[in-house]
């Protein structure tokens, strides 16, 4: 059974849905990414998984349990933690205090859990008494991920965790994402940069105009003409698809 299963989700902000009939699954211990052009509905879908938006159709299962109608603030207790792109740490609290807050949904010993999280994020242990607001943007994103891990989630949803980061810090964040998956968590990453998604993920979903355009193991998705798909001109089977083209349209 996949840790996360979303079936036929439609969702949005008003009467007409932004995301339409999207299905996706994310297995434990693997990285699944959602890629797509700007405005495709990736963040809207992530917010729907997190319970911030209520889907108008479909259902969301975590470890087989239907969480579709669970209020957003209780969803971490059901095994799904969400890290938004912005405002994802308490800036006036220390690193340690942020982690303590993140541990509230967990039933385990929070001190033990913090030591486990520090094993995945050793640099945060060194900075544990620093105010989160004094960390760099990249360190804040790592702290946000670590805070989400404190809840011992089965599934962690990361909305563009490397947005705005330097290439060097982007590599650090992806290394950490790999370590989170290595601990057995299902990781779902919204990623703007297709090249990065194809490099790091095992499964990829391509969302275009709010609908599921393609999905599958990374080896299969890498064969598609993603640049053409993003530009609305699917040229798969032509020779036009190159990784550098895909990369360049994402910057
Ligand atoms: N709070 C909101 N209220 C109304 N419409 C919104 C809101 N947030 C996003 N939208 C609209 O929903 C659509 C999808 O936005 P969304 O942020 O989900 O796309 P995305 O694929 O994550 O894009 P990006 O890669 O640019 O972040 C866009 O047309 C956007 O303008």
How would you describe what is shown here?
- With 251 residues, this protein is of the alpha/beta class.
- It has a single domain, classed as P-loop containing nucleotide triphosphate hydrolases (Rossmann fold, 3-Layer(aba) Sandwich), CATH 3.40.50.300.
- The chain is 33% helix and 22% strand.
- The chain has 10 helices and 10 strands.
- It has helices at 42-49, 95-102, 110-120, 122-126, 137-149, 167-182, 194-200, 218-221, 226-230, 243-248; strands at 4-11, 19-26, 31-35, 57-62, 65-66, 80-83, 155-159, 186-190, 203-208, 211-217.
- Strands 6-7-8-3-9-10 form a 6-stranded mixed sheet, sandwiched between helices.
- Strand 1 and strand 2 form a beta hairpin.
- Helix 2 (95-102) packs parallel to helix 5 and helix 5 runs parallel beside helix 6.
- The N and C termini lie far apart (36 Å).
- Residues 238-251 have low confidence and may be disordered.
- The structure holds adenosine-5'-triphosphate (ATP).
- Ends apart, CA distance between termini: 36 Å
Number of helices: 10
Order of strands, main sheet, comes to: 6-7-8-3-9-10
Task: Provide the list of bound ligands, each named once.
Answer: adenosine-5'-triphosphate
The portion of residues forming beta strands comes to: 15-25%
CATH topology type: Rossmann fold
Q: What structural class is derived from the secondary structure elements?
A: alpha/beta
How many strand segments? 10
CATH level 1 class label = Alpha Beta
Domain tally: 1
- Which homologous superfamily in CATH is the superfamily? P-loop containing nucleotide triphosphate hydrolases
Radius of gyration: 18 Å
- Tell me which CATH architecture applies here: 3-Layer(aba) Sandwich
Model regions low in confidence, pLDDT < 50 over at least 5 residues: 238-251
